[in-house]
């Protein structure tokens, strides 16, 4: 199992749409975060709780081993489906929400989403993930 840094886990929360877009961070590679501070702000704890609730985990707002393992699983599935659908060539052993995942999500959204191109951020919202899952299952 991967042990994510706070910045890596924050990137997952941003990337999956659990943390609201920080417009100040847009020029700094959003949704990828370099902020390695503690995951203790009210918004961050709520984002962690929402993630935990969505995936049937104990909802405590703490990023423990089970929450990290579930995040790793979710990212691996996301990256696998992006590889199937948009030929993203994301590595199977690198379950992080980094620049290559952002680029692949943008590519998918541009091809399969009804979003205006200017609104495509590289965030794999629940709507985008459901659509990706549907398209991937048709191709597998």
Automatic annotation (TrEMBL):
Q: Which organism is this protein's natural source?
A: Anabaenopsis circularis NIES-21
Query: Matching Gene3D superfamilies, A to Z?
Result: PGBD-like superfamily/PGBD
InterPro entries in the record = Peptidoglycan-bd-like, PGBD-like_sf, PGBDSf
What Pfam families does the record point to? PG_binding_1
What this protein is called in its record is Peptidoglycan-binding domain 1
Residue intervals of the Peptidoglycan binding-like domain: 43-70
